[in-house]
Specification:
8-stranded antiparallel beta sheet, 16 strands, globular, single chain, 31% strand, alpha+beta
């Protein structure tokens, strides 16, 4: 009896991988280019000049944690896009994106993230991974609860998008979403802005998925109820941590490291794009909110990228006063001291 209880305890504490693509997913396009293998534990998506391929979850969900292990297209993957994302349907859809933009051999992948709510996105952040995502499987996770969305790579947070409805920013919380994955050609924009095209002599391109796991609230469209409503089993694997998950001190340190070392684009620091003013959540994210201060992007990262944007603007003939330049450091003493010399140089130009 004691042994049985111990086994049950381990089962409840450890992640339970769904691990059967036959039961949990449906191929949506690509015909035989999507192949379920290894008894349902592995799914391969392929792309050739005729078509890509993709699949979706059989269930819809309203909040949860979603994990997928991926091994991306190796070698010359320029022009290809491999995806793992959540989405609802319709013109005013919600969406939470992981997209992996291929590159020429020897060049790193770009991890593109975005959040759509009520059909509006334009909240992109991009990263370069600190490992080769084509040599082995790595875990990519989305935590989605009413307070925030967390993007994780091998359980390391790379981005947090908080619920800022209080200041008028839409947040995806009312539409159930399915999990989607696909491999497709986007050589008009995916690699170096479309300058590098897909080399079809390398086709077929193949990416592998395994260990699809959901700890989530299953949504029933027929009854408009959620499995987390109380009358049914809670989340799929009875692990409720995601419902209130946020970044602890270790998580804030890790996301700071990722965003300082591996972030290559942040919409909240793109002064050229938002010349009339940044979206309201960008301003909010730079305010201290107790433990919230590092949850979206660090002030230091924003300062670096703001200065780069200003430098670029100056090369185009725009001028800025020293007070305008200093405002981009938030007038924080450490930032002002650190950027005193580059601000002086910029101001003299």
């Amino acid at each position: 009896m004691l042994l049985q209880l111990s086994v049950l305890a381990i089962f409840l504490l450890c992640p339970v991988w769904a691990d059967n693509f036959y039961q949990d997913t449906t191929v949506t396009f690509g015909d035989q280019r999507a192949q379920i293998q290894d008894g349902g534990r592995l799914l391969a998506l392929s792309l050739d000049k005729i078509s890509g391929s993709g699949f979706q979850s059989n269930n819809e969900y309203l909040f949860g944690r979603f994990d997928m292990q991926l091994k991306l297209v190796p070698g010359n993957s320029a022009g290809t896009v491999t995806t793992f994302y959540l989405s609802s349907q319709g013109a005013g859809h919600d969406e939470i994106d992981f997209e992996f933009l291929g590159n020429s051999s020897g060049q790193p992948y770009t991890v593109h993230t975005n959040v759509y709510s009520q059909g509006k996105g334009n909240k992109e952040q991009q990263f370069r991974l600190w490992f080769d995502p084509t040599s082995s499987f790595h875990t990519y996770s989305i935590v989605w609860n009413p307070q925030r969305i967390i993007f994780l790579v091998d359980n390391i947070p790379i981005r947090v998008f908080n619920n800022h409805e209080a200041i008028g920013v839409p947040f995806p919380k009312n539409q159930a979403m399915r999990v989607y994955a696909s491999l497709w050609n986007a050589d008009d924009w995916a690699t170096q802005g479309g300058r590098v095209k897909t080399d079809w002599s390398m086709a077929p391109f193949t990416a592998f998925y395994r260990n699809f796991n959901t700890n989530a609230c299953v949504w029933s469209a027929a009854s408009s109820t959620s499995s987390c409503g109380g009358s049914k089993t809670d989340s799929v694997n009875n692990d409720q941590a995601w419902k209130t998950q946020e970044l602890n001190a270790n998580g804030r340190n890790r996301i700071r490291w990722v965003q300082q070392k591996h972030m290559i684009y942040n919409y909240c620091a793109d002064a050229q794009r938002f010349s009339q003013g940044f979206p309201p959540e960008c301003k909010r994210s730079r305010l201290l909110e107790g433990n919230e201060c590092e949850k979206l992007e660090s002030r230091e990262m924003n300062t670096n990228m703001q200065l780069l944007s200003l430098t670029y603007a100056m090369t185009k003939g725009q001028s800025y006063s020293i007070s305008q330049l200093q405002s981009h450091t938030g007038h924080h003493p450490e930032n002002v001291k650190r950027y005193e010399y580059p601000l002086k140089i910029l101001a003299e130009k």
